[in-house]
Amino acid sequence: xxxxxxxxxxxIVRDAFIRKGHDAISCDLLPSESNFGPxxxxxxxxFILSENWDLMIAHPPCTYxxxxxxxxxxxxxxxxxxxxxxxxxxxxxxxxxxxxTWHIPKIAVENPIPHKYAVEIIGRKxxxxxxxxxxxxxxxxxxxxxxxxxxNLVETDNVKETWKSLPKKDAQRMHWTSPGPDRWxxxxxxxxxxxxxxxxxxx
Length: 203
Prior knowledge:
Elements: E1 2-6, H1 12-19, E2 23-28, E3 39-41, E4 55-58, H2 82-99, E5 106-111, H3 116-122, E6 128-130, E7 143-148, H4 160-164, H5 168-171, H6 183-188, H7 192-202
Helix pairs in contact: 1-7, 2-3
């Protein structure tokens, strides 16, 4: 299969598909952190999207779309934060653009749980919620999938009981990630177990 991994700088999903024998390439504004497979550094809305892809898996920016940040849409005086609303509308519009790419028959778009304002622009709710502990990682981080032409992912290694026995800072490692300029990068990387499930089940 010819596969495009959109908005991915880590190479984790791309490389999982390559190891299964697929022709996969990642695309992001940032350079790839893995040299295992090919990477196009640039805007996904450029020429690369127009090629004939069998499958696209996309990880668009979630900063202004996720439910955890919905309160920032309003200022302390309860008036709208118009800059934030503008960026939210831009982000949700980009998300919808990817999801509705008509010429790619199979699409999966990944993001955290969105707030209602983003869902209104995207046009529909997600099809599935995943947790890392469903795929061998004893951690909690709800991840939503919007799917086109693809079945829901089936869990591969349920370690929920192990996860429940861990201290809170370990069980919710991503939530407790130290503040800093690269915090968003750490939180945005796909878990290896989920990437391998995508390659096994969608490849």
